[in-house]
Design brief:
Elements: E1 4-10, E2 13-20, E3 25-33, E4 37-43, E5 49-55, E6 66-73, E7 79-81, E8 86-87, E9 92-97, E10 103-109, E11 112-119, E12 125-128, E13 144-145, E14 151-156, E15 171-178, E16 181-188, E17 198-203, E18 209-214, E19 219-225, E20 229-237, E21 249-256, E22 262-269, E23 272-275, E24 278-281, E25 287-293, E26 300-307, E27 311-318, E28 324-331, E29 333-337, E30 340-344, E31 346-353, E32 359-367, E33 374-381
Antiparallel strand pairs: 1-2, 1-33, 2-3, 4-5, 5-6, 6-7, 6-8, 9-10, 10-11, 11-12, 13-14, 14-15, 15-16, 17-18, 18-19, 19-20, 21-22, 22-25, 23-24, 25-26, 27-28, 28-31, 29-30, 31-32
């Protein structure tokens, strides 16, 4: 398991790219067609198996066909089905697994919910684990098992007040997790959950610290993972210009560097304004915010905001060696630069990660997004 591949999804088309870490290059390989649009994917911690959440739903669309698929990863990184797709009740927005992998967990946001499936010894998906009924915060966006393996975190984003509807507050839902069974533990509601729209968490590799991207407020927060999940101990902006965010300015994915010294958050935007009868990008921030982590306190300090060279960075990933970061830019937009109009296509942007955690742009691979978005990308060893 020394080679690394990047996997990028455009609708149901799931394409593998070989990553040359030393050269920071991507080479397209094979494409497989999934039963519906890829929403998210997660690798088994030991076996060469990838779990892929699929749906014909999407942004503002619930859809009617939803699946959990297991895929084998061949020695060259190519994907092939492992067993039959598992039909799901709702559109899955996130999939993850515990370590060691015994269960696969899925999160749904319409309605908010979580399901858990057993994983068989050969990596295939087994039976669903029956759960008690829980009322979750509106618009769940992720489900993650803590490094200790005994708790599950579900960020519920909530929704802004709009069209005469009041704000739906957000929350961090925490559960005890035993043999695949969830039991209610605690709900974290800073200020009652108002002005708090959590999206994604990631965990420090050696310290009891959890970092959270807050989508609706464009912030990064720090929580402690003690006997109780507590916090937030801080909330810091992800933006260079937080005092005047433009419409459709959102925080996205959150990943801690493998060495535990840095944490990264995507700022994603795709809003438009009218210009001479055309819709052009509104100039919001499409960046990766880079934070240095204080080794004693865990507090993050913003050290860089690097342009992604694309529009709406919904997902990004760091290679296991911590030397390369790849961003998936979801959509295309027309950008006005002075008097010149330039189209910015979707695609994959490749960055080197320096010893100081800062990003250096290397190249971008443009992807045709006229028919579907670059909705998910990730990278894994094989």
């Amino acid at each position: 398991m020394n080679a690394v591949s990047v996997y990028a999804a455009v609708g149901p088309e799931f394409t593998q790219f070989s990553l040359d870490v030393a050269g920071a290059t991507l080479t397209p390989r094979a494409t497989v067609t999934m039963p519906a649009g890829v929403q998210y994917a997660w690798r088994h911690d030991r076996l060469p198996v990838l779990y892929v959440a699929c749906s014909d739903g999407g942004l503002g669309k619930t859809g009617t066909r939803h699946f959990l698929c297991a895929m084998t990863i061949s020695p060259d990184g190519a994907l092939a089905p492992l067993g039959e797709p598992i039909a799901l009740r709702w559109r899955p927005v996130h999939v993850s697994a515990d370590t060691p992998t015994r269960f696969v967990l899925l999160a749904y946001n319409a309605p908010s919910g979580v399901t858990v499936f057993k994983v068989n010894p050969d990596g295939t998906v087994g039976d669903e684990v029956e759960q008690d009924r829980f009322d979750l915060a509106c618009t769940a966006h992720q489900v993650m098992v803590t490094p200790s393996g005994d708790r599950v975190i579900v960020p519920g984003r909530g929704n802004d007040a709009e069209h005469g509807r009041p704000e739906d507050p957000g929350s961090i839902e925490t559960f005890r997790f035993t043999d695949g069974k969830l039991s209610r533990h605690r709900r974290i509601l800073p200020d009652g959950g108002f002005g708090f729209g959590p999206r994604h968490v990631d965990f420090h590799p050696t310290q009891p610290w959890m970092y959270l991207s807050i989508e609706r407020q464009n912030q990064l927060a720090l929580f402690d993972l003690g006997d109780e999940v507590s916090g937030p101990r801080c909330r810091v902006t992800t933006l260079v210009n937080p005092q005047s965010p433009k419409p459709r300015q959102l925080a996205g994915a959150c990943h801690v560097h493998p060495n535990g010294k840095f944490v990264y958050v995507s700022n994603r935007a795709d809003g438009t304004v009218e210009h001479k009868g055309m819709r052009v990008f509104n100039g919001a921030e499409n960046t990766i915010a880079v934070y240095e982590i204080d080794p004693d306190s865990g507090l993050p300090a913003l050290i860089q905001a690097e342009d992604t060279r694309g529009m709406h960075a919904r997902t990004f990933a760091i290679d296991p060696s911590g030397r390369v970061l790849v961003v998936g830019s979801m959509v295309t937009r027309d950008l006005l630069e002075g008097d010149t109009m330039r189209n910015v296509p979707g695609g994959l942007s490749v960055f080197r990660i320096g010893e100081d955690g800062r990003l250096g742009f290397v190249r971008k691979i443009d992807i045709d997004v006229r028919h579907a978005n670059v909705f998910w990308m990730g990278m894994f060893r094989h």
